[in-house]
Amino acid sequence: MAYKFVDNYREKGARKQLVETLRKRGIADEAVLSAVGKVPRHFFFDETFWTQAYKDIAFPIGDGQTISQPYTVAYQTELLHIRRGDKVLEIGTGSGYQTCILLELGAEVFTIERQTNLYNRTIKVLPYMGYQAHFFLGDGSKGLPQYAPYHKIIVTAGAPFVPEIMLKQLAIGGILVIPVGDAKTQKMVTVIRTGEQDFEKIELDTFRFVPLVGDQAW
Ligand code: SAM
C-alpha cells in the first residue's frame, strides 16, 4: 500500500501549538501532553485535510465515524493514569489515533473496532507508522473477555449505560473510562474497581460521542 507520510516543520509546529492549546484547556498531565506532541495526527487524514489535523476538533474518518477531538482524547487518557506496562483495552479503535497515544505512554493495547473498513485500515497504518497493538474486529460492548483482566479500559463511543460485563474485566485497582448518556450528550464516567465486588463511580464533564453500538450498548 502506498502511504505518503511526511512530518515536516509545518506539522511539527502545528502539533506544538496543539499541545499548548490543550494545556490552556486544562490538560495538566505532562506525559499525556508529551504523547500528543509525538503522535503525527495528520497521518490519519487525507493530505487534502492536513491543515485540519492539529485543530482541536473531531473530524470525519469515513463510515459515519470520527477521529476524536484532541481535547477529548487527552481528557480520557488523563483519567486513565496510564503506567508503563499497563494492559489497556480500548473499545472503538476508529482511526487508531487514541491507540497511538496509549502506546506512546508505554501501555500494551488491546483495541477492538466493529467496522470492518476502519479495522482494515488501522491494522495496516499503525504498524506502518511503527506502532504495534493487538487489533480485534467485533463488538467491544462486551469487552474482550479472552484477554482480561485489564489495568485500564477506555470506551471511545457513547454508551447508554456502564456494561456490567466490562466491569468484570477490570483488574482490582483498575479504571474504566466511558462516556454514558443519551444519543445527544454523555457524561464522562470513571469506574475504579476497589475490590472483588467493590466499584467507585465518578461522573465528570459532558461530551458528545458517536454511539457505542452492540449487544451491551445501543
Ligand atoms: N478514539 C478513536 C480515534 O481516535 O479515532 C475515535 C473513535 S470514534 C469516536 C468511535 C469508534 O467506536 C467508531 O470507530 C465506531 O465504529 C466504534 N464503535 C462503536 N460501537 C462499537 C462496538 N460495540 N465495538 C467496537 N467499536 C465500536
From TrEMBL:
For this UniProt record, the keywords arranged alphabetically read as follows: Cytoplasm, Methyltransferase, S-adenosyl-L-methionine, Transferase
Q: Which Pfam families match?
A: PCMT
Which InterPro entries does this UniProt record tie to the protein? PCMT, SAM-dependent_MTases_sf
List of catalytic residues: 68
Its EC number is 2.1.1.77
Q: Where in the cell is it found?
A: Cytoplasm
Q: Which GO terms describe its biological process?
A: methylation
Would I find Transferase among this entry's keywords?
yes
Reaction it catalyzes: [protein]-L-isoaspartate + S-adenosyl-L-methionine = [protein]-L-isoaspartate alpha-methyl ester + S-adenosyl-L-homocysteine
A GO MF label: protein-L-isoaspartate (D-aspartate) O-methyltransferase activity
This chain's function reads:
Catalyzes the methyl esterification of L-isoaspartyl residues in peptides and proteins that result from spontaneous decomposition of normal L-aspartyl and L-asparaginyl residues. It plays a role in the repair and/or degradation of damaged proteins.
What family does the Swiss-Prot or TrEMBL record give for this protein?
Belongs to the methyltransferase superfamily. L-isoaspartyl/D-aspartyl protein methyltransferase family.
- Cited NCBIfam families: pimt, PRK00312.1
Q: Matching PANTHER family, A to Z?
A: PROTEIN-L-ISOASPARTATE O-METHYLTRANSFERASE (PTHR11579), PROTEIN-L-ISOASPARTATE(D-ASPARTATE) O-METHYLTRANSFERASE (PTHR11579:SF0)
Q: What is this protein called?
A: Protein-L-isoaspartate O-methyltransferase
Q: Please name the source species.
A: Olivibacter oleidegradans
